[in-house]
């Protein structure tokens, strides 16, 4: 009998060797001791499962095969490495497969249990034929394509609340009418050349809780309600917090919790199978980042335990 009063679990690639060795931008990941605290806090809330590798065929369904071949073989230029944010090694490829595999596994869970969680993921800067912004494979696009091709979803909402616009996701899904991409981001932040999402809400530097939540209520809610999705990918970026090294917004931890509560309670009430990925977070205070990450888990578990979609 499960020790948890719910059927949910989370997938993680953070316990792989690829995340503890090889190249990584210094500001991308939590220090190892804080990463262990994050995993420990998550495991106190729900079972943690190691991420399976993504099958290459699913990556090839959305990414250019020649691009994938070159990156698998390490045939990349210095310019491409700079665009990604760190130098190529085999660990780059393994991290991409692990992160995307975790999102696919969480998506399968969402279909079966109502809610699926990847403790990482959200690599929304990867384009069909190039890597950018710490993103080699676009995990959400891969899983969305799998859902559509398998007939498991007809109208997918990608709600991207990372502080950076999901430019790769917007580009890759622009011609797909069955997917609505929504990005709420800092307008003057990276990427400096924006793509066109289904809905873009660019916010000024320093936007705080009240203005951010109002934008969700007045600009986002009417559009997503009219779209009538039957599946949700939620990119719960923690880089909207004040003090983030790569963000320009100024939400408080309480504001991020209010954001997560609103989104996830709406999804649970609407009966939407939901995949949650954590996306960006580079706060100068690692403990604050951990607390917000765990708050996202709490919001998801509370919402979907109150309004269960299906049972395993």
Automatic annotation (TrEMBL):
Please give the name of this protein. Putative Histone deacetylase superfamily
Q: Does the keyword Isomerase apply?
A: no
Return the similarity comment.
Belongs to the histone deacetylase family.
Pfam families tied to this protein: Hist_deacetyl (PF00850)
Sorted keywords for this record are:
Hydrolase
The Histone deacetylase domain sits at 57-285
Question: Does Hydrolase appear among the keywords?
Answer: yes
| Gene source species | Deinococcus deserti (strain DSM 17065 / CIP 109153 / LMG 22923 / VCD115)
According to its UniProt entry, the protein's GO biological process terms are: epigenetic regulation of gene expression
* GO MF term set: histone deacetylase activity; hydrolase activity
């Amino acid at each position: 009998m499960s020790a948890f009063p719910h059927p949910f679990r989370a997938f993680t690639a953070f316990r792989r060797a690829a995340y503890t060795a090889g190249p990584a931008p210094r500001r991308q990941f939590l220090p190892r001791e804080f990463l262990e605290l994050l995993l420990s806090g998550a495991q106190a809330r729900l079972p943690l499962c190691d991420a399976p590798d993504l099958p290459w065929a699913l990556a090839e369904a959305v990414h250019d095969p020649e691009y994938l071949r070159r990156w698998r073989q390490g045939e990349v230029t210095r310019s491409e490495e700079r665009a990604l944010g760190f130098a190529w090694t085999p660990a780059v490829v393994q991290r991409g497969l692990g992160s995307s595999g975790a999102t696919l596994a969480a998506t399968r869970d969402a279909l079966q249990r109502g809610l699926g969680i990847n403790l990482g993921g959200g690599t929304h800067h990867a384009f069909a034929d190039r890597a950018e912004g710490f993103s080699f494979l676009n995990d959400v696009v891969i899983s969305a394509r799998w859902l559509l091709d398998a007939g498991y979803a007809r109208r997918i909402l990608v709600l991207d609340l990372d502080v950076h616009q999901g430019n790769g996701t917007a580009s890759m899904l622009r011609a797909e009418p069955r997917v609505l991409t929504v990005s709420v981001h800092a307008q003057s932040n990276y990427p400096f050349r924006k793509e066109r999402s289904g809905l873009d809400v660019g916010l000024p530097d320093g936007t705080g809780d009240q203005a951010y939540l109002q934008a969700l209520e007045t600009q986002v809610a009417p559009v997503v309600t009219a779209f009538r999705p039957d599946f949700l990918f939620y990119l719960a970026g923690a880089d909207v917090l004040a003090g983030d090294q790569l963000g320009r917004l100024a939400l408080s931890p309480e504001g991020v919790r209010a954001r997560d509560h609103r989104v996830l309670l709406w999804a649970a009430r609407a009966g939407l199978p939901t995949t949650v990925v954590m996306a960006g977070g580079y706060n100068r205070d690692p403990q604050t980042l951990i607390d917000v990450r765990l708050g996202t888990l709490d919001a998801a578990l509370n919402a979907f335990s109150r309004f269960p979609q299906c049972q395993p």
